[in-house]
Design a protein that fits this description.
With about 260 residues, the chain is of the alpha+beta class. It has one domain (about 5-259): 4-Layer Sandwich (Deoxyribonuclease I, Chain A). The chain is about 20% helix and about 25% strand. A six-stranded mixed sheet has the order 3-4-2-1-14-13. It has a six-stranded mixed sheet with strand order 5-6-7-8-12-9. It has a two-stranded antiparallel ribbon with strand order 10-11. Strand 7, helix 3 and strand 8 form a beta-alpha-beta unit. Helix 3 (about 120-140) runs parallel beside helix 4 (about 175-185). The longest helix is centred in the middle third of the chain and has 19 residues, at about 120-140. It starts with a strand and ends with a strand. The model has no long low-confidence stretch (mean pLDDT about 95).
């Protein structure tokens, strides 16, 4: 699969912050063809007028300043781009961008956190259900690549301390079951398909207590591929050496003919 595009996803925890620190170096070293961002935390333009090496830039900012938000930056022109998805009672938090290409969709998502004390767990599960219906609708048309910060460590091997986090946001039985339901709708966790027994492979670390230096983390950032894309993707990677956020980028290569 020599003719491949490099797809990257990164929760930057503030676009302007990472842009002032490590973004230029990251782009020069990794050169993603499609870059999906989460938690941009800024009111950004929807047109491509930022000084970035992407002709096509789509930002979905939250109404609340300095909060959430997603983006897709692409060197390939999408056929269409949409924001959000159908569902009742969702605040405008800029959590989803969907780009349609010739033979696939790319969906960038920043899934709501259940928060301390699970104060937002009920809403998060309702969001999950509506988002899954959105993906199911896309699947009826073309294969789908869904990426982003899903705020869920699916299995015990996806976080350093599962026993201590049984009822922590991101590792509740309810959130894990919702993630399983998403996979059951026809998606593959590309990293787990390729590395089924891998441990100590994380994409998020708390800023507290030197967690990143000690690699006490969680794998909550994913590239999911629908079964219709089997054989058309390869080389899922977690780039733990890329700094600038409390998350690191995750990537996947996909056959160029899909785009």
């Amino acid at each position: 699969m020599d003719a491949a595009l490099k797809l990257y996803s990164w929760n930057v925890n503030g676009f302007r912050s990472v842009a002032s620190k490590t973004l230029d170096g990251f782009l020069e070293t990794h050169s993603p063809d499609i870059l999906c961002l989460q938690e941009i935390k800024a009111t950004m333009p929807r047109g491509g007028d930022l000084a970035l090496p992407y002709a096509h830039q789509f930002f979905h900012s939250a109404e609340r300043p300095g909060y959430a938000g997603t983006a897709i930056l692409s060197r390939v022109k999408p056929l269409a781009v949409s924001m959000n998805f159908e569902g009742e009672g969702h605040p405008q938090e800029g959590r989803v961008v969907t780009a349609e290409f010739a033979k696939c969709f790319v969906v960038c998502a920043y899934v709501p956190n259940a928060q301390h004390g699970l104060a937002r767990l009920e809403y998060r599960l309702r969001w999950d259900a509506d988002f899954q219906r959105h993906l199911a609708g896309l699947l009826r048309r073309k294969p789908v690549f869904a990426c982003g910060d899903f705020n869920c460590a699916h299995a015990e091997k996806d976080l350093a301390n599962p026993a201590q986090n049984r009822r922590s946001a991101g590792f509740t039985d309810e959130e894990r079951a919702a993630f399983s339901a998403l996979l059951d709708r026809g998606f593959r966790d590309t990293f787990r398909v390729s590395f089924p027994e891998a441990r100590d492979c994380y994409s998020w670390w708390s800023y507290r207590a030197g967690a990143r230096a000690r690699n006490v983390g969680w794998r909550i950032d994913y590239w999911l591929a629908s079964q219709g894309a089997d054989g058309l993707w390869y080389n899922p990677q977690i780039h733990a050496n890329v700094l600038g956020s409390d998350h690191c980028p995750v990537s996947l290569s996909a056959d160029r003919t899909l785009f």
